[in-house]
Amino acid sequence: MRRVHPPGGDAELPPGVEVYSFPADGAAIRRTRAGVAEPDGFLPFIDSGQRARYFVGDASTSPERPSNATYKLGVVRPHSAFTPHAHGGEHFVLSLGYASCGLYDQHAERAVRVSLTPGTLIRIPALMPHSFGNRAGSPLLILAANTGFGIDHEDYAITASDAEARGAEPRDAGAPVDDFPRLAKALRALESANDPGAMTLRERLASRLRRAAHRLEAPR
C-alpha cells in the first residue's frame, strides 16, 4: 500500500476504536490501534468489480433477521454505473466523490439523472428504480444506509430481470412489491439511460484542488 498519513492525528487509539479517512483520490484508509491499512472485509456489491463493506448490519439482514438499518462503505469503479435496481426499503447514499444517480419518475414516466458532488447525500424512497454511477476516472467512495435489507436479501436490489421473473409467479400477499410488471418496465426504461455522465471542467479543476488540499491538510 502507498505511504499514507494516519487519520485521526497522533493520539493512541483505545482498543476497538477505528478512524476512517476518505481522501480525494478514491482510496479508503482505516486506522486502528494496530496501525494503518486499507479496510478489509469487502463483499461483492450487485455487479462485478463493485464492492461494499458493512459498518452496521450484514449481508443477511432482512425483515426476518433484522439488525436495524444497515450502513456500509461502497467502492464504485471509475466511469461505471450499477445495473438499475430498486430496494425493498428506503436508501440513503452519501457521495464522497463525483457521482450521479439515475432515477425513474413513475409519475412522469421518465428517467432523471441527478449529479452529485463530494459530500452530497441523497435519499431514495423504497422501490424507486435507480442506478448510482461514478462520473470520475478514479474510484468513487459512497456511504450507504438502508432500512432492513442486506445485499443477500432478494428484495435488496430488484433488477428488471428479477422483476420480470417474479412478475410471472403467483404474488405473495406479504411481498413489498404489488406490481412487478410495472416495476420491470420502469427498470428497463432506466437501463436505456444508464450513462453515469462525465465531470464538468469546473469539477475536474475542483477535484485537483481537493487533492492538493488533502496533501496540505496532512501533517508533516
UniProtKB/TrEMBL annotation:
InterPro entries: RmlC-like_jellyroll, RmlC_Cupin_sf
UniProt xrefs under CDD domains: cupin_RmlC-like (cd02208)
Official protein name in the record: Uncharacterized protein
Organism: Virgisporangium ochraceum
